[in-house]
Structures are given as C-alpha cells and as structure tokens.
C-alpha cells in the first residue's frame, strides 16, 4: 500500500530526526537518492555519464540544499553540473559542498531580484537533465515571482527544444498543491519526482499527478513518526487480500447475490454491461429487476442471470436509467429504500445519483464523473461546476462524502474514493482508452459484485465510517483499470472487452496472494 502524508505531518516527523542527527544528514541522504535517479535517467536515455550536463534549478530552503548536494554527488561522478541560483539565499552548506565538488555556480537573478532570462535560457539549452529544487513542501499557493516567471519561461523553452530535457523534481514539482493536488499556477512538469520520507497527496491525485511523472519514495526513517496517512493507494497485493476466493463448501448464495436495477428501453445495453462486470468478477448470482425487453437482452448474453426479486447482499442501481423515466426512477427508489432498510450496501451510478436522498448509509457508494459530482453538490447547496471538480477532485470528493454520508468514487484519469469517516484513496490503474461508452456500467457491476461478495462484512451497520466500503470501491477501480489495460493492449477497447478481461485480472491478483 502506498501511504501519502500531508506536508505538516511530514515536517513534524522530520523534526526529531533533525534534532538527533548530524548536520545535514537527512539532506545528504535525500540528495544521494536524487543523484541516483538522475543517473538512472541518463542510463535510460543512453547518455554517457561523463560529459553529460545537469542543470540544478536552486531555490531557497531545504529543497535547494538537496539539489546542491545532489549536484555535488553527480559532479564527483564525472558529470558537468551547473547550479542556477534562483534565490539570493541559497542553502549555505549545500552551496559550499557543491562548489567543492566542482559544480559551476551561476546566479541568475539581477540586483533587483529579477531573472536574467537570456543567461538562464542558455544554461537550460545546454543541459540534458534539469533538477527542480525551486520549492518544497512548505510552499503554499501558486509560485510567486521571480520563480513563477522562471518556471513559465523554462516550460516554454522546453516545449520548443528538439531533444526535450528530462526533469527530476526534488520532493514535489515546484508549484503544485502538495496536500490537495491542485495546480494553482505554473509548474515545471517532471519526468521523475523523488519524494522524501513518504508520498504526498498531491502526487497521487489529479491534476498535479499528471505533472509528477514517475514517483520515487525515499525512506529516510520517518515512518514511525508519521501517524495515519491522509491518502492511500491500494496495490495489487492489497486488493488480493480484499477478494475472498471460493472454498469447497461455498455455493451461489454464500458467494454473494447482487440485485441489479439498470438499463431501460432507451439504454438497454447498460444493463448488459453492468451484468457482465458483475458476473466476470466472481459473485454467486445476479438478480435483475427491469423491463422484460431488457431482461430478454440480458438473457441472450447471460442466461444465468435470474429475473425477479429475492434476497440480495448488495445492489447496483442506476446504470442506463434516465431519472426522468418515472417507472425506472421508481424502481431505483424502491430498491434503494430496501437497501437502506435492510442495511445492505448499494452502488448508485448514473441516473440513480439524482434520485438519492440527502443522506445515505456509509455502505452506499456513489460513482459520479466530474459533471455528475458537480450536479450532486449543486443540489445540496454548493456553488461549483465541472471545471471546479476537475481542478480540485480530492477536496470536492471529500466534501460530497461529508454531505451525503456515503462513499464517493469520483471517476476520472485518477479515481478518488472518499469515505464519510474521512478515509481517502486514489487509484490510477487504467488506460486513457477506458474513456469510452459503457465502461462506467462495467465498473458499477464490478463494484456491486465486490460489495455482494463481502456483504456479510458490511451488513447491518458494520462499517460505520465507510472504511471497508471505500477500500472495496478502490479495489473495484483497480480491477476495472487493469482489465481495461489488459483488454486494450495499447489500442482501442470496448466496454464488453473490458468486462471479458476481468476474470484474468482477478485470477492474477489471487495467484500472487
């Protein structure tokens, strides 16, 4: 499991280590990790170490010190290293160490604190790797001048260079929202981010995640001092632990039964896709409630689906249903009422989102995309819109969970899952090819199946803060994302192909357990 901690927690965890260790020991440890990643990138690019040029973008504070110490390591290994001082207060000991190792130091601010743009551009043009040590986790809000202008100019220059330099960020790409993943101003997009002590939430959620590149977490001994994470990301091993494999004494009822209210005469395929996602995930039975024409369509593809009501361990509601379709809206409301009265978990997708009451159980999962989450929040008195959700998905998913009392699975390039009790997870396991019609219906089925299989652990108020429910929602996102990547194999994919790939993903997860 990847655990991300907010800046304040990391800085508090560093304090006792800084007080008990030798001068700059943590900094030199971090710098060695940065230097190692620079060398790894050079090897990947096929560049010779000796003669390769590295540009250090040095700001004030510890991140600038990390960059300077890293530059010293690289210079001693035969690289040409230039430190562009973008501050008038560089880390003194780091600067001295860099100079003694042969790093060439170039101040790039004039006497008035403004950047010498032409000089910086020449230095940047000559370097194959840029090390971003401009700001660290202590920065708040967007970059201020002169750093904002420096980053903007470098980003523009990089985009025009025929051989785009690799950027290695120290701790975080300068300018991102460290705790919330927002991008309040210019950011120099990183290819690799070497983050110290623990991942930061901003590296694991959009839009900042897209600017972080490959994230490398360096263990500097903070774990015993960090406390509970602000954000988690499940690994395949975590998901395998959440998926109970059948045993010899199981039968279809002990494996979980999912009630499915999905599809309509206008959108019948949504019910087929949700059923496909559920069946492929490995539950005992799917019960379908809906129009006869849709039921016949499901039966033509999946004759094992049972039509009609009966006892279930979870519900999946709303895929392919227009909330203005009174008959189908009533079906959703009736099923949701039963779920809430019986203490049974439920997935509310698509049309069911607009039919949800103000407050829900923590074992209910809402699965909106950005536009649907904006409408859900507006209906509850929040002033927002789709663009606002896309700019701050972590904040607004958490807000929606608090307002509704349900777990919120916000779909997007990175899935954010927020529980009403405060637990938050993010998953980025899929492929952009999943952005196609019907894949959300498959996800609703996969999630419904996982809730049904673990129904006994969720029933009757056993998950009061929504923690297990949120973990199962994140697990569904991982299974669905990996199925999409497997089915796509780098090319276009259809929703049914994603569903068909789910059993292979589940089998691989369980085999590695």
TrEMBL record:
<dbReference type="InterPro" id="IPR017953">
    <property type="entry name" value="Carbohydrate_kinase_pred_CS"/>
</dbReference>
<keyword id="KW-0547">Nucleotide-binding</keyword>
<keyword id="KW-0520">NAD</keyword>
<comment type="similarity">
    <text>Belongs to the NnrE/AIBP family.</text>
</comment>
<comment type="similarity">
    <text>In the C-terminal section; belongs to the NnrD/CARKD family.</text>
</comment>
<feature type="binding site">
    <location>
        <begin position="62"/>
        <end position="66"/>
    </location>
    <ligand>
        <name>(6S)-NADPHX</name>
    </ligand>
</feature>
<feature type="binding site">
    <location>
        <position position="441"/>
    </location>
    <ligand>
        <name>(6S)-NADPHX</name>
    </ligand>
</feature>
<feature type="domain" description="YjeF C-terminal">
    <location>
        <begin position="235"/>
        <end position="509"/>
    </location>
</feature>
<dbReference type="InterPro" id="IPR004443">
    <property type="entry name" value="YjeF_N_dom"/>
</dbReference>
<keyword id="KW-0511">Multifunctional enzyme</keyword>
<keyword id="KW-0413">Isomerase</keyword>
<feature type="domain" description="YjeF N-terminal">
    <location>
        <begin position="10"/>
        <end position="228"/>
    </location>
</feature>
<protein>
    <recommendedName>
        <fullName>Bifunctional NAD(P)H-hydrate repair enzyme</fullName>
        <ecNumber>4.2.1.136</ecNumber>
        <ecNumber>5.1.99.6</ecNumber>
    </recommendedName>
</protein>
<dbReference type="GO" id="GO:0052856">
    <property type="term" value="F:NAD(P)HX epimerase activity"/>
</dbReference>
<dbReference type="Pfam" id="PF01256">
    <property type="entry name" value="Carb_kinase"/>
</dbReference>
<feature type="binding site">
    <location>
        <position position="132"/>
    </location>
    <ligand>
        <name>K(+)</name>
    </ligand>
</feature>
<feature type="binding site">
    <location>
        <begin position="411"/>
        <end position="415"/>
    </location>
    <ligand>
        <name>AMP</name>
    </ligand>
</feature>
<dbReference type="InterPro" id="IPR029056">
    <property type="entry name" value="Ribokinase-like"/>
</dbReference>
<keyword id="KW-0456">Lyase</keyword>
<dbReference type="InterPro" id="IPR036652">
    <property type="entry name" value="YjeF_N_dom_sf"/>
</dbReference>
<keyword id="KW-0067">ATP-binding</keyword>
<feature type="binding site">
    <location>
        <position position="440"/>
    </location>
    <ligand>
        <name>AMP</name>
    </ligand>
</feature>
<keyword id="KW-0630">Potassium</keyword>
<feature type="binding site">
    <location>
        <position position="63"/>
    </location>
    <ligand>
        <name>K(+)</name>
    </ligand>
</feature>
<feature type="binding site">
    <location>
        <position position="171"/>
    </location>
    <ligand>
        <name>(6S)-NADPHX</name>
    </ligand>
</feature>
<keyword id="KW-0479">Metal-binding</keyword>
<comment type="function">
    <text>Bifunctional enzyme that catalyzes the epimerization of the S- and R-forms of NAD(P)HX and the dehydration of the S-form of NAD(P)HX at the expense of ADP, which is converted to AMP. This allows the repair of both epimers of NAD(P)HX, a damaged form of NAD(P)H that is a result of enzymatic or heat-dependent hydration.</text>
</comment>
<comment type="function">
    <text>Catalyzes the epimerization of the S- and R-forms of NAD(P)HX, a damaged form of NAD(P)H that is a result of enzymatic or heat-dependent hydration. This is a prerequisite for the S-specific NAD(P)H-hydrate dehydratase to allow the repair of both epimers of NAD(P)HX.</text>
</comment>
<feature type="binding site">
    <location>
        <position position="320"/>
    </location>
    <ligand>
        <name>(6S)-NADPHX</name>
    </ligand>
</feature>
<feature type="binding site">
    <location>
        <begin position="136"/>
        <end position="142"/>
    </location>
    <ligand>
        <name>(6S)-NADPHX</name>
    </ligand>
</feature>
<dbReference type="Pfam" id="PF03853">
    <property type="entry name" value="YjeF_N"/>
</dbReference>
<feature type="binding site">
    <location>
        <position position="270"/>
    </location>
    <ligand>
        <name>(6S)-NADPHX</name>
    </ligand>
</feature>
<comment type="subunit">
    <text>Homotetramer.</text>
</comment>
<dbReference type="InterPro" id="IPR000631">
    <property type="entry name" value="CARKD"/>
</dbReference>
<dbReference type="InterPro" id="IPR030677">
    <property type="entry name" value="Nnr"/>
</dbReference>
<feature type="binding site">
    <location>
        <position position="174"/>
    </location>
    <ligand>
        <name>K(+)</name>
    </ligand>
</feature>
<keyword id="KW-0521">NADP</keyword>
<feature type="binding site">
    <location>
        <position position="369"/>
    </location>
    <ligand>
        <name>(6S)-NADPHX</name>
    </ligand>
</feature>
């Amino acid at each position: 499991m990847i655990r991300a901690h907010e800046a304040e927690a990391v800085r508090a965890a560093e304090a006792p280590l800084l007080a008990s260790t030798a001068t700059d020991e943590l900094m030199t440890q971090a710098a060695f990790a940065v230097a190692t990643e620079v060398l790894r990138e050079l090897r990947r690019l096929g560049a010779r170490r000796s003669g390769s040029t590295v540009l250090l973008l040095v700001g004030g504070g510890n991140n600038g010190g990390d960059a300077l110490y890293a530059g010293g390591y690289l210079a001693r290994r035969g690289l040409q290293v230039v430190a562009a001082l973008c501050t008038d207060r560089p880390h003194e000991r780091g600067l001295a160490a860099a100079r003694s190792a042969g790093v060439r130091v170039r101040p790039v601010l004039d006497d008035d604190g403004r950047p010498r743009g032409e000089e910086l551009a020449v230095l940047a043009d000559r370097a194959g790797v840029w090390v971003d040590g401009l700001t660290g986790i202590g920065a708040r809000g967007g970059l201020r001048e002169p750093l904002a202008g420096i980053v903007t100019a470098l980003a523009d220059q990089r985009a025009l260079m025929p051989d785009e330099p690799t950027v290695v960020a120290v701790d975080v790409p300068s300018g991102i929202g460290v705790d919330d993943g927002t991008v309040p101003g210019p950011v120099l997009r990183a290819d690799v981010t070497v983050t110290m002590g623990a991942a930061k939430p901003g590296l694991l959620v959009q839009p900042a995640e897209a600017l972080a590149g490959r994230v490398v977490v360096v263990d500097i001994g903070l774990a015993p001092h960090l406390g509970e994470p602000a954000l988690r990301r499940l690994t395949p091993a975590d998901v395998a632990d959440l998926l109970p494999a059948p045993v010899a004494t199981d039968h279809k009822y002990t494996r979980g039964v999912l009630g499915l209210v999905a599809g309509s005469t206008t959108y019948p395929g949504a019910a087929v896709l949700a059923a496909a996602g559920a069946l492929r995930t490995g539950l005992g039975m799917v019960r379908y409630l809906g129009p006869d024409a849709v039921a016949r369509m499901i039966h033509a593809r999946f004759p094992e689906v049972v039509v009609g009501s009966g006892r279930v361990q979870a519900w999946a509601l709303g895929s392919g249903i227009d909330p203005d379709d009174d008959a189908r809206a009533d079906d959703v409301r009736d099923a949701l009422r039963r779920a809430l009265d019986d203490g049974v978990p439920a997935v509310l997708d698509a049309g069911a989102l607009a039919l949800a009451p103000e407050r829900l159980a923590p074992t209910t999962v809402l699965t909106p995309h950005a536009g649907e989450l904006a409408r859900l929040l507006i209906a509850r008195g929040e002033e927002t819109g789709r663009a606002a959700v896309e700019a701050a998905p972590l904040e607004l998913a958490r807000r929606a969970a608090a307002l509704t009392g349900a777990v919120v699975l916000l779909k997007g390039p990175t899935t954010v899952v927020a529980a009403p009790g405060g637990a938050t997870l993010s998953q980025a396991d899929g492929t952009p090819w999943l952005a196609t019609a019907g894949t959300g219906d498959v996800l609703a089925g996969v999630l419904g199946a996982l809730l049904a299989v673990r129904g006994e652990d969720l029933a009757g108020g056993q998950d009061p803060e929504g923690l297990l429910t949120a973990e199962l929602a994140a697990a569904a996102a991982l299974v669905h994302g990996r199925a999409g990547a497997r089915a796509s194999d780098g090319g276009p994919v259809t929703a049914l192909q994603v569903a068909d790939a789910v059993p292979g993903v589940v089998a691989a997860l369980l085999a590695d357990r």
